[in-house]
Amino acid sequence: MRTPFLLVTRSCKAIHRLQQSAFVSSVSALYRHQTISVLRNSSTVSCKDDRSYYITTPIFYVNASPHLGHLYSAVIADCLHRYKLLQGFNSKFATGTDEHGLKIQLAAEAAGKDPLTFCTDVSERFKHLFNSCNISYTDYIRTTEQRHHQAVKHFWSVLWNKGLIYKGSYEGWYSTQDESFLTALQVGDAVDSSGNEIKVSLESGHKVEWMKEENYMFRLSAFRSQLLDWLKGNPRAIQPELFYQVVLKWLQEDLPDLSVSRQRSRLQWGIPVPGDAEQTIYVWLDALVNYLTVAGYPDKHNQWWNVAHHIVGKDILKFHAVYWPAFLLGAGLPLPQTIYVHSHWTVGGKKMSKSLGNVVDPLERSKQFTTDGMRYFLLRQGVPDSDSDYTDDKAFKLLNAELADSLGGLLNRCTAPALNPAQVYTAFFPQSFPSEQGGRAVGEDYHMLEAVKNLPAVVEQHYESMHVFKALEAISACVRQTNRFVQRHAPWKLERSDIRDQRWLDTIIHVSFECLRMYGTLLQPVVPEISDKLLSRLGVQPDERGLADVNFLPKIRGMNCPFEGRVLGSDTGVLFTRLENLDIDKQNPKKTKKAKK
Ligand code: MSP
């Protein structure tokens, strides 16, 4: 799928530059929002090349306020979107809210509000969270919008006209919390908080009820072999691999037809079935079509629909990897290129839930840890293949160690007036650090250069398989190596009056700056504000921050370095302020251990 960066057309490159420049000095909240709106507007400009990319988050249910897990889905998508922009792609990034269905209808009733007002309130809370956390979506979709209603009705009519939907009756289990139909094998016994015996979904633990109603069925069973063919022919379609195997296993099992509507008498809050006012379209069919609505379905979706990638949590894998591709095959549309699956955040080893009182408020935490701190923690510590447990203490330690001490400390050292009185991007002297071992550099220094040089490829591989934590691990390991490099040669001990020492000192700083420039460039998708601060301090201009500009340490290869001799950017303070006196009230780590027991 990838083409060399150089193939980017001039117009796209210009947009890309604009997008990059939008990251500059976005520290104040006001400016940050302007920044994001520049990003949004610019990426709706159509590029006449095939380097388009379309990434989506799931759309979020509005029955409750956003929590940390929701932000996680959004941060992963934002990171991939920003990474694609860095690569020069024209990237579209959609998120939004899922507002129909019984669950929302009941939540609105419980809140004593009319459903649309209720949905608008909660949808605004999600939007506020995403704006506050620099989620640079280019489209925010709500399923209550007209454009979406039209897309869903059209999609339904296509399936209907192809004979893929028929009137039938469903009798079986339904979970309102999951808005999902379950077979007897997926249901187990449990006792609710009042001691009543109930049936629950074995997967989600949510209560299920027996229902019997006339509704429309989709011929899901007819698509089993096509789905298998798709997956066998596209082994990277579902990532990580573990989830690909899970879906393959599901497809070996029985795949009954799927109920795709509910009786209007039970569910009013939804899109009516075209031509049958007695039935409401099943909320999952409605919700999945959001990806097409944003792409411009039914008239002008091709540019984006051929390059669609979905981020989903593991709990909604079946909807995205079985139902959705079957609907798309039925409608004669291309399938998503990748479904990236992530696991969950738990607290005290348990799923976050209101009743357990362990819900982590992402807005509150991002005020404590800063927006970039929160983003870094989620992506550095979140592992797609298995659940991660959240504690404030972990975040506190990680951010202090990696952002404040290691990365911030390195920048601080090399820009300190004591070592760099002229405040310039110092010169590199090949006599001190020749391309072949010699001069004053030692073997470990060459190993470090090798690791940093290879970093873009390593990071790309990990970003593209959604192992962002591995990319960050690799960057963090290199930052530590660069710190050791500085420590090893102790430039503060060099005798400046000796020309040889002065040159070696300049060379050490130059090499460290080159490493920092690499880290700042690669970290932009994860910590946009910190990266901006770092690159600005180094004097790297907004149009010099793309992946194609990275060209690491050209002087060692006898090439010109455009940064050498430049005056550094102004000192705007430490990169990441150490977190002190953290008020860990909600989640005392000791309590967490107890809860685990
Ligand atoms: N509305 C559906 C998605 C429809 S997409 C066509 C939905 N919404 S949700 O609000 O319940 O979940 C949205 C996303 O948040 C899912 O990817 C889900 O996995 C994720 N998370 C919800 N809780 C989570 C954690 N505790 N941890 C990580 N992510 C989790 O499902």
UniProtKB/TrEMBL annotation:
It comes from the Eukaryota. Residues 53-414 form the Methionyl/Leucyl tRNA synthetase domain. It catalyses: tRNA(Met) + L-methionine + ATP = L-methionyl-tRNA(Met) + AMP + diphosphate. Keywords: Aminoacyl-tRNA synthetase, ATP-binding, Ligase, Mitochondrion, Nucleotide-binding, Protein biosynthesis, Transit peptide. GO terms for biological process: methionyl-tRNA aminoacylation. GO terms for cellular component: mitochondrial matrix. Its main location: mitochondrion. Residues 438-542 form the Methionyl-tRNA synthetase anticodon-binding domain. It is found in: Mitochondrion matrix. GO terms for molecular function: ATP binding; methionine-tRNA ligase activity. InterPro entries: Anticodon_Met, Met-tRNA_synth, Met-tRNA_synth_2, Methionyl/Leucyl_tRNA_Synth, MetRS_core, Rossmann-like_a/b/a_fold, tRNAsynth_Ia_anticodon-bd. It is an enzyme of class 6 (ligase). Its EC number is 6.1.1.10. Belongs to the class-I aminoacyl-tRNA synthetase family. This is Methionine--tRNA ligase, mitochondrial. It comes from Notothenia coriiceps (black rockcod). The lineage of its organism: Eukaryota, Metazoa, Chordata, Craniata, Vertebrata.
